[in-house]
Amino acid sequence: MIAQRSSSTMQGVHHILLLSSRAKPKPKTLSQPLIQRRTSSSAAADSPERERWERPFTLHRARGQHLLASPRALDAVARRAGVGPGDTVLEVGPGTGNLTVRLLALARRVVAVEVDPRMVDALRDRVSRLGLLDRLTVISGDAMKTEFPEFDLCVANIPYGISSPLIGKLLFGPCHFRSATLLLQKEFARRLVSVPGDSEYNRLAANVRLVANVELLMDVSKKDFIPCPKVDSSLVKIRPKAEVPAVDLDEWLAFTRTCFSKKNKTLGAIFKQKKKIIELFRRSHSERQEDNRRVNGGCDDLDDDGEDDDDGYARSKIEEKVGEDASEVSLFKKKIVGILNAGGFGEKRPSKLSNEELLHLLQLLNQEGVLFH
Ligand SMILES: C[S@@+](CC[C@H](N)C(=O)[O-])C[C@H]1O[C@@H](n2cnc3c(N)ncnc32)[C@H](O)[C@@H]1O
């Protein structure tokens, strides 16, 4: 059970939670999930209780609406987030409030950002019944388009579809916070905590490691969710570093996008691609232009380390523009190859390099006028 606070209000919250977990199922209500002791013989012995879902509306998998229904897992998420009584907690995707009510029992204030108006109503209704609405701020909207208010901690069972851009927004945006405790798809979490040389290590891990430390806290079974997703989950804690390397973060993000654009290829091979050279030539020899940004695709997704999108339209436009500069482009390519080889990077694979090594390469390239953003 989650930690108790001593004020009478908080005792009230705890009392309600305890009562709920032991009460017999009440008549169905539309939007207040109850906690019910499972009686089915198929019920897992180690998970005798579930937050009950009364199906007041359809849950949309496309919106990542998998509610965490195990009180044991929910208590553990709230407890391991390290919420203090003076903290403002940001929760992204509160759903019907299974985690929110636990956070309200621990924090000074919870700010919840929820895109689905039906969830917003259900959450407000539930928290209002607990008499805690004055400590909850609900922002009805898309977390990726919402300016987050100030907060101390982010604690959330997020829709997995926005994992990468949300972590990017938290770590590379203007937010200052102690930690983000997030329930993520297990495979994604493993990549987040991987280190150079691991088979999972990728651009996401490199970018996150630059500015934060990540700790794997626990695994959560897919059976703990309603509806049951296809994948298991893991809880991670992301702590922003107090000091980060003195590098332009936009430049770094664009650089890692290039480095990790071809899986398992050496840096020499990656930087020899005509398309890439032309793109870098344009960027390094002109002001930032719309075409360049279009090819680059923006830096809000930390995780796009698969094969490069074949953006034929943008490439042909750029090739058209640099047609008359062909000899300069060729010199530019030689310069890049020279920098790679002189630094001993040509035969190296980015997924095996530490961030210190990647930062060194970026510095060498920037010094010679090769720009990524
Ligand atoms: C995985 S469910 C978690 C619900 C609740 N936290 C729980 O654990 O039971 C994700 C929630 O995020 C909401 N959501 C999906 N996309 C969102 C977005 N872009 N911004 C804010 N909320 C979003 C969904 O509607 C859903 O309520």
UniProtKB/TrEMBL annotation:
Recorded hits in InterPro entries, A to Z, give: KsgA/Erm, rRNA_Ade_Mease_Trfase_CS, rRNA_Ade_methylase_Trfase_N, rRNA_adenine_dimethylase, SAM-dependent_MTases_sf
- Which residue ranges have biased composition labelled Acidic residues? 300-311
Q: Does the keyword Transferase apply?
A: yes
Tell me which Pfam families the record gives. Answer: RrnaAD
**Positions of the Ribosomal RNA adenine methylase transferase N-terminal domain:** 73-242
Biased-composition ranges for Polar residues? 29-44
- Name of the protein: rRNA adenine N(6)-methyltransferase
The record's gene field reads LOC109715316
